[in-house]
Specification:
Layout: H1 14-39, H2 43-89, H3 91-104, H4 109-120, H5 123-133, H6 144-164, H7 174-199, H8 204-231
Length: 235
């Protein structure tokens, strides 16, 4: 049964929001840690830089999640209003568009007519049908921007803390902290990929390995930049 288009719809994808925030947090801070470990060799500098990045990045990611989700909601509501106007002013054109979708799905003859009449007889069902299958838009509830911002922002904070944790316990040994950070980050990224595979589809070890490789590659890029700055003359 099709739901009314105004407010009723599935919740935002918690998994994608969590992966977005946590992966960004881990990769971002790991890159900073390895870059500073190669260039500065100072635990204090690493803590200051990464904690500053945690504050700025978590707020920025939450703001981006909020604004992008809000834009999707506004787009949906705008298009829904346009469809309602067209259903009122040019009903035969809209009926023809419903028919085109049903024909594309393989309906013909009396079955096609029955489906078409059933959908078009119910304005709510017809609007839902057009929004989903003509415009490929999903409804976004009013609370979704706040929810998405909270999940992405919180996951970003968690992701930032993962590679940073070792440096709270190895105050003077930057190399040991960096090695522990790489290890912990790799395990966390693998876990995120594993959870994604278990929740959606895919092979758990392949998704986990892919997530870990991509994330650690970002951290290695930070190390290369720090190393180049450290050995470059005059810098």
């Amino acid at each position: 049964m099709l739901a009314p288009p105004s407010e009723t719809h599935p919740k935002p994808t918690l998994l994608s929001d969590f992966i977005l925030g946590s992966q960004d947090g881990i990769v971002n801070v790991l890159g900073i840690i390895l870059g500073l470990a190669a260039a500065a060799q100072s635990t204090k500098v690493i803590l200051i830089a990464t904690l500053a990045a945690l504050g700025a990045e978590s707020i920025a990611m939450a703001a981006v999640a909020y604004s992008s989700t809000l834009s999707r909601r506004r787009l949906y509501l705008s298009e829904a209003q346009r469809e309602r106007t067209e259903m009122r002013d040019v009903p035969e054109i809209e009926r023809g568009e419903v028919r085109e979708v049903l024909v594309r799905w393989g309906y013909t003859g009396p079955e096609l007519d029955a489906m078409l009449n059933g959908i078009c007889a119910n304005p709510t069902a017809m609007l839902e049908f057009m929004m989903a299958f003509e415009l490929n838009l999903a409804p976004v509830e009013a609370s979704a921007p706040r929810t998405s911002a909270g999940i992405v922002g919180g996951a970003t904070v968690i992701g930032h803390l993962v590679p940073l944790l070792p440096f709270f316990f190895v105050a003077s040994d930057v190399v040991a902290g960096a090695v522990a950070s790489i290890t912990l980050s790799g395990v966390a990224l693998f876990g995120v990929g594993w959870y994604e595979a278990r929740t959606t589809a895919g092979v758990w070890w392949r998704n986990g390995l892919q997530m870990a490789i991509i994330g650690l590659a970002g951290g290695f890029a930070g190390y290369l930049i720090g190393h180049v700055i450290n050995v470059a003359p005059g810098l």
